[in-house]
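Bug: token stream looks shifted between consecutive jobs. Job 1:
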Amino acid sequence: MSSASDTICAIATPPGRGGVGIIRISGSEAYTLALSLTQRSELTPRHAHFCSFFDHQGEPIDSGIALFFNNPSSFTGEDVVEIQSHGSPVVMQQLLHELCRSGARIAEPGEFSKRAFLNDKIDLIQAEAIADIINASTDIAARNAHKSLQGAFSDYITDLLARIINLRILVEAGIDFPDEDIEFAHTDAVQQELRALITLLKTTLRTAQIGQIIQSGITVALIGAPNAGKSSLLNQLGGLNKAIVTDIPGTTRDTLDTSIDIDGIPFTFVDTAGLRDTTDTVEQAGIAKALDLIDSADIVLFIIDATTLTNDTYRTDELLSPALSERLTARPFLAVINKIDLSTTVPPSIPDAIDVVSIAAKHGTHLDLLKRRLIHIATGADSTENALSARQRHISGLQGTLDSLEYGLEHFLTTRASELLAEDLRRAQDRLNEITGLFSADDLLGEIFSHFCIGK
């Protein structure tokens, strides 16, 4: 059974062959194990030592670099040794075998970062940022995660906590010392600070939501009748001829996707079978998948062939069968009028849609406009600058904090009950503490760190 006092080891480099492979060791016996592995009498902290690595019988395994970081001046806060050898999977496994034979155990996923958190080297936001950097799929996602690792998001939370704590002091002083003529809780200053905190939290929450979108990405479903140009749009967006394009209705029968980076957000566009009534069993299956995607996608683009339009305004049920139209309009969608290069009519309005964008997918006309509109729909903003690298856990915590402050302001304005406000402020403080990990259940920590790499 694993224990936090065990000395742990793991490969810290990606699986497979490479020029260099790194094994990380952490724990009270890390230094002793490294001396045994290298057959050296000492390792100077923070110095690179070129040496050979030996098995328990004294036979050389490989040669490379050994680096020792003594506690508490290490990533985990424990004694840490990094062994850098040639990146052969065979060599890596031999070195791990010798370390485990001498008393170490293989680290659990994320255990190095978990120990850093438990030893107060990083907070929970910073620990999660390590995994976010590794998993980042765009430049902006990586930069945002790095800012969180450096403490930018934590600083936001710390500042909010300090202001909430100061407000609690004011309110509870009036409760605890009623005979001292302390009337802080009955002044406009409390209301003003509450309102200022609510405004700041809304801004922070929105910034975190944009950061989560940048980290997790957006799925966009391309929906429309056959030959509307969905596959052409997919090919143009992806810069590849992934989708087969013909004049034959029903060419696309299964979903096909492509991923692109738009302003730092990873978008995945999914081409689908054309929506129409058909007796073809295979095509029906493709249409069913398209309809399911309408429900699961983050954004739906309804692609419409401009050459089929003659009116100034169209309802969706005039463009699709009633059943298909009902399914589409059950959620917000963006109407995209395609093939405007082949039409002489003015693009119509589609009242059911949240907006209408006109393009010529085959030639890439107005695709920049479409991309900007997608960014705005996804984030509610025109830019992704200054976003925080965030997860749903952080957003739930910020929303819970905001709810508590809004409840507190409502209670204070309607009842003037300082006791109710004090309780709401305590709840707000607790929700923020959960974000940084000051108060975190063991099962939550287990869930967070279980998604890390073994060597992290």
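Job 2, same session, no restart:
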Amino acid sequence: MAPNIIPDNLISRLSELVNTKMGLHFPENRWKDLRRNMTGVAQDIARIHKIENNPVICIEWLLTTPLTKAHLDILAKHLTIGETYFFRDKSLFQALRQNIFPELIRLRQKKKCIRIWSAGCSSGEEPYSLAILVDQMIPAHGKDWKVAILATDINATCLEKAEKGVYTKWSFRNTPAWTKEKYFKKRDEKYFEISPALKKMVRFSQLNLVENTYPSEFSHIRDMDIIFCRNVLMYFKPEVREEIIERFFQSLTDRGLLIFSPSESPCVRHSGLCPLYLPGTTFYRKIEAESNVKPEPDPDPNPNPNPNPEPEPVKPVKPDSQPPYLKALTLANIGRLEEAETFCRQAIQQEKLRSEHHYLLATIYHEQNRLRESVKSLTHTIYLDPEFVMAYFLLGNLRQKQGRLTEADKHFRNTRSLLLDMKAEDILPHSEGMAAGNLLKMVQSMISKMA
């Protein structure tokens, strides 16, 4: 066995350690992710403690050393990797703009106070998106309204980036150009900084959701009008998820709203939370504490007194339903490729212009060695999103495998061009947590070998 191959017994002990110390759940079917991410952990630990840069040695060191906050921060940096960008999930932000925020503004008209919590905020794109939306809907909030947006994450590296508020154009994919022009200052050709006014609206803080430290007066985690926690529950065991949802419930004000990602909705089983279905997304409303009867129907979804057009009618959906794309992604991850292909085709049929749907289909074809079909889907992906880094990279690999080296070189060079516009620490979407800097080194090596 090679010295840096992590044996099962060691990765099992590491999984238990991470679960005990951090609450993060890495069952056996996710050991592959844990093994891959330990390369970065080993590099950081080796640099700080002057030990050999080797994942096996690093794990043995972690298992026999009292772990400090600095050690846990390194683990969090590499084991909790978020993929995010501004105004991610158009359905959600449309529902917030048309239904949720108008009602909330009406209800808070006297107090003029709104409290929002982004739990698992990653590098800050979500809370800043919420700040932009608030600014659009309450332009005079600085004078008359008190809007507090709390943003927390376990990953200290992500929080450091979020507090700086500096982003590359990759964070603005699928974001209207006027958003960047109005709310960001261009620092140079690569970087854009969020406006000081919006920075002041968001307070960042490190928090591990498994810890029983909230709700709390001290941390101001209480009486929240809306809590966002998307793509976070998947890191925890079912029993831990229930504890976190209970603490979220206690942290909400009466009739406050809780929002998860669509794939996490089946995890929500709380008698005090009533689902509210809006097109493309599901919210969970806290039932008023003194009410022992069925919750009253939700108010007019467009209570804004302005003569705006009526929003789309609410279409009920099953609480445990999962979008075809997420079903396809889940099935592909466990190797059930034929079923994954079926659901991925359904997702494309529903949303033909979503580049990530076509990319997933391309990866399924690739795993099945259906290279011609994979190339076709990747070409479609790039047509829909000319800045889809991983699509160029996979296309280069496929062309190289087919012996079409000139085309492979072109796609690798396109990949390099996009990566040069990103920060080295930026996490690439649809890459299973790979940083831009790591892929850039790999691509440059491949280009050199082909020269």
